[in-house]
């Protein structure tokens, strides 16, 4: 997909050498985001190295150098602690920050945005905008159209999350185990190759993991239903890329499967793939490298009235992280929230 913009700007990508940072660069290229000058930013050890973008080489610079260069847009993929330190500093200069980390998602007054669902909540006064958790993004893209039509009274979700959601070190553990090697470092408390871990992120006092509670709280905030009943179980699976979710929803009114399919087929950002008789259903291998949220295995829950089951899959590094953040930046430009002549600084950070 490409877009046509009437403005061009200086863009910084902070964490440009990381997993999400690299995908952000790729998405910016693919979507023809209006970049005149690129400022790739990484750790001190990487300063001076070269990054290839749109056929040109750019040297990696430090955070301080990037700030001094006054970029119009920056994409952060350097973690929550970096975001907590630097996002307010950029915001104080009048910049708009889009933060893909967990640092600001549940902060009151800071919008948590999936453009297909609630882009309208952004105002000119919002100088920090949070990008949601990868699993939350794909779920609300698929469920919000149904919520708008029928109302959703309850969500039960089990996730099957790829190792790339944990980062490069987790990928290395998986690859070494797949080769029969002893991993240099155990990112997970158990082997992940040929295994499933019902353990994503740290356990909390209520015995849910932090990842599971992100699905609860972020879904409520994005969909604008503070008391939405949501319960989640998050599982790490031996898949390199692409998160899957088995979701059960209880609707407020009766629905027919044909109408549900019609709504999802026309929903922005959704790819309906639901023909089980011909073995067509969402899988991570289909979503890899794509921005759509794939939905299928749609069927009535025969154990309870007005309840339905769906299977939802998306590329966790793209729509679940980099692409959603870039789409927020595009939304700001398209809605004239960020001006082209003196475009506000946009920072995107990853968890």
Please characterize this protein's 3D structure.
- 30% of the residues lie in helices and 23% in strands.
- It is an alpha/beta fold and 351 residues long.
- The strands form four sheets. The chain has a six-stranded mixed beta sheet. A three-stranded parallel beta sheet has the order 2-1-5, with helices on one face.
- A hairpin with a 6-residue loop joins strand 12 (293-300) and strand 13.
- It is globular and about 60 Å long.
Question: In terms of topology, how is this protein built?
Answer:
Blueprint: E1 9-14, H1 19-30, E2 35-41, E3 50-53, E4 56-59, H2 63-68, E5 73-76, H3 80-92, E6 96-99, H4 115-118, E7 128-130, H5 134-150, E8 152-161, H6 168-178, H7 210-223, E9 230-236, E10 243-251, H8 257-265, E11 270-272, H9 284-287, E12 293-300, E13 307-314, H10 318-334, E14 346-347
Parallel strand pairs: 1-2, 1-5, 6-7, 6-14, 8-9, 11-12
Antiparallel strand pairs: 3-4, 8-10, 10-13, 12-13
Helix pairs in contact: 1-10, 5-7, 5-10
